[in-house]
Design a protein that fits this description.
Shape: elongated
CATH architecture of the largest domain: 2-Layer Sandwich
Largest sheet: 8 strands, mixed
CATH topology of the largest domain: Heat Shock Protein 90
Strand order of the largest sheet: 1-6-5-4-7-3-2-8
Structural class: alpha+beta
CATH class of the largest domain: Alpha Beta
Number of strands: 21
Helix content: 40-55%
Number of domains: 4
Number of helices: 18
Radius of gyration: 36 Å
CATH superfamily of the largest domain: Histidine kinase-like ATPase, C-terminal domain
Strand content: 15-25%
Distance between the termini: 120 Å
């Protein structure tokens, strides 16, 4: 007969409020810890049976039951695992659990942010007091002749331990829920927590509501003979998650089904990487490349980190390379020291090796796709290129591994490597790379390139303004220029201007400068091969990049950056040639000025939308010019 009262050898009056404070944002973690303890107890029992040291019914089903009783305001976590003797309760509950809490206190009492703590493993049983006024343990050990034990504590320094009338091997932990934690006395809330933390634990978990169970029993008694009986309840978890299987054993449909279930994403992923490593560390998982609905989706990945199938946290960048957080996936690594601060993880060499290995496997998969499924690789590119580019900029090793498979969509309708683009165009513009940042706004420039058999690359995603700078740094001597930033020599007539041409250019420049009354605007006259374009506006590349940064990130600090623009007049165009002839006609001065302003506005419209005031003036002037034209025709 066991009967004992005593004091726990830890000052819980000091520890308890600090633990509550630290874990408050993750208050629901108590259920994960207690269910995980039950899983451990069952795993130990299975091991003893397999070794022949313990006996169990061959038909026995190992299970964990989470039982809610709203009337009694209790939650029970019951397992049929190894159980505990009185001496084991004293050791593991009175000493180990609370000394673990004391160690936690000493380690983290000076930390300032709860987010610095990951996992909370090791607190285990103590986390029950986060939500309880009182906690009871009722347990019977597997050992022959063992006496059942009941233990209870209200979270203070005192505990009680006595004999129990329990007859079944295993343990039941009963939580008497505190007034400030009543939200957990809800079946749907408990289910949500279990699905969050325990969806893939290796032992079947069942959630029960005592009120619902009583109702079901009553309904079953009232049924007439011959009616079908009640269906067997289903566990809420998948005990054999896909990532534990060998890749060769998994079907394409299983990968897709798992993705949809875990991430609630009903769009099929593009492809996936199955990680299965046993040495030099234990690492398993599946990383999915999601299909993007829009460009901003690339910022919303989710990598779930598990420890022995127990969910720990989302997106732990100390373990998972930051750029991989743009993906979706699960990673299970039992070897990680999770009961530590993030600062420890940041400086731990073992963790860095895991992170580097994951990065390498992703790069290997991408290289394999490029070499063996190039058509699919190109098809995926619009979705995966933001991730790859971000990875290159964040991780030099990753860049080294994938630099030879970075492809770019070209105006010739195909994908190309940068080196191939430069080789094809070295006679036209050497180490210059012309690129398109806005297909619609730069349509006129693109047409000029295509008509003159010139090639430009599409770099029009949100990340490309940064990636261009990165490539210029990595590809020494290569310079990226927007198609609206410079006129390639290949777009010009290759003739040296004579004296008369120079005089004409000077006259046109003066005419436009006087008509536009814009002293900051640069004006040039070029003989373009395309004769149907009167003029184009060029924006200096450094100025264009600053404008792009301002537009995309809305930084008010650089909003007033002066834009260096150049109006290029096409001397091969009939309208520009006609204006030159009117340079000394005083009787046509008004029309000449109107046409000059109109040519400029048309060029600007091909560069960017006009300001509201300029647009109103453009429409008014258009009407006036059309009226004059109609009068001439009549």
């Amino acid at each position: 007969m066991i009967q004992e009262r005593g004091s726990i050898s830890v000052n819980t009056a000091d520890i308890f409020p600090i633990i509550r404070k630290w874990l408050y944002s993750d208050k629901d973690i108590f259920l994960r810890e207690l269910v995980s303890n039950g899983c451990d107890a069952i795993a130990k029992m299975k091991r003893l049976v397999s070794l022949g040291e313990a006996e169990a019914d061959a038909e026995e089903q190992y299970q964990i039951h989470v039982i809610l009783d709203k009337k009694k305001k209790t939650i029970q976590v019951a397992d049929n695992g190894i159980g505990m003797t009185a001496e084991e309760v004293k050791k593991y509950i009175n000493q180990v659990a609370f000394s673990g809490a004391r160690e936690f206190l000493e380690k983290y009492k000076d930390q300032n942010e709860a987010s610095q703590i990951i996992g909370h493993f090791g607190l285990g049983f103590y986390s029950a007091f986060m939500v309880s006024d009182k906690v009871e343990i009722d347990t019977l050990s597997w050992q022959a002749g063992a006496e059942a034990v009941k233990w209870s504590s209200d979270g203070g320094p005192e505990y009680e331990m006595s004999s129990s009338d329990r007859r079944e091997r295993g343990t039941v932990v009963t939580l008497h829920i505190a007034e400030d934690s009543k939200e957990f006395l809800d079946k749907f809330e408990l289910r949500k927590i279990l699905e969050k933390y325990c969806a893939f634990l290796p032992v079947e978990i069942y959630l029960e509501d005592t009120e619902e169970e009583k109702k079901k029993k009553t309904e079953t008694k009232d049924k007439k003979d011959g009616e079908d009986g009640e269906k067997a309840p289903k566990p809420i978890n998948d005990t054999h998650p896909l990532w534990l299987k060998k890749p060769s054993e998994c079907t394409e449909e299983e990968y897709k089904e798992f993705y949809g279930k875990v991430f609630m994403d009903f769009q099929e992923p593009l492809f996936w990487i199955h990680l299965n490593v046993d040495y030099p560390f234990n690492l398993k998982g599946i990383l999915y490349f999601p299909r993007l609905r829009n460009e901003f989706d690339s910022l919303e990945g989710q990598i779930k980190l598990y420890n022995n199938q127990v969910f720990v946290a989302d997106n732990i960048k100390e373990v998972i390379p930051e750029f991989l957080l743009l993906l979706k996936g699960v990673i299970d690594c039992p070897d990680l020291p999770l009961n530590v601060s993030r600062s420890f993880l940041q400086n731990d060499g073992f963790v860095r090796k895991i992170s580097d290995h994951i990065s390498k496997k992703v790069a290997d998969k991408l290289n394999s796709l490029y070499k063996t499924e190039k058509e699919n690789y190109e098809k995926y590119w619009d979705d995966i290129n933001p991730f790859i580019k971000f990875g290159c900029m964040r991780d030099d090793k990753f860049h080294e591994r994938v630099k030879d498979i970075l492809i770019f969509k070209s105006t010739n309708g195909e994908y190309t490597l940068l080196k191939d683009y430069l080789d094809r165009n070295k006679d036209k513009h050497k180490d210059q790379v012309f690129y398109i940042s806005d297909e619609k706004q730069q349509a006129q420039y693109i047409r000029m390139f295509k008509e003159n058999d010139l090639e430009a690359l599409y770099l029009d995603s949100l990340i490309d303004s940064h990636f261009i700078n990165f490539l210029e740094m990595k590809e020494s001597g290569t310079r990226f220029i927007g198609v609206d930033s410079d006129i390639s020599d290949a777009l010009k007539e290759k003739t040296e201007p004579d004296k008369e041409d120079k005089q004409l250019q000077e006259a046109l420049e003066n005419m436009f400068r006087n008509s536009l009354n814009n002293k900051e605007l640069k004006i040039k006259v070029e003989a373009l091969r395309t004769s149907d374009i009167p003029a184009v506006v060029l924006l200096a590349e450094h100025s264009r990049r600053m404008q792009e940064m301002t537009r995309r990130f809305g930084n008010p600090g650089i909003g007033g950056f002066p834009l260096e623009q150049t109006l290029v007049l096409n001397s091969k165009n009939n309208l520009i040639a006609r204006l030159a002839e009117l340079k000394n006609r005083e009787d046509r001065k008004e029309e000449t000025e109107m046409i000059c302003r109109h040519v400029y506005d048309l060029a600007m419209l091909n560069h960017k939308p006009l300001e509201p005031g300029d647009m109103a003036e453009f429409v008014k002037r258009s009407n006036k010019l059309l009226t004059r034209l109609a009068e001439l025709e009549s």
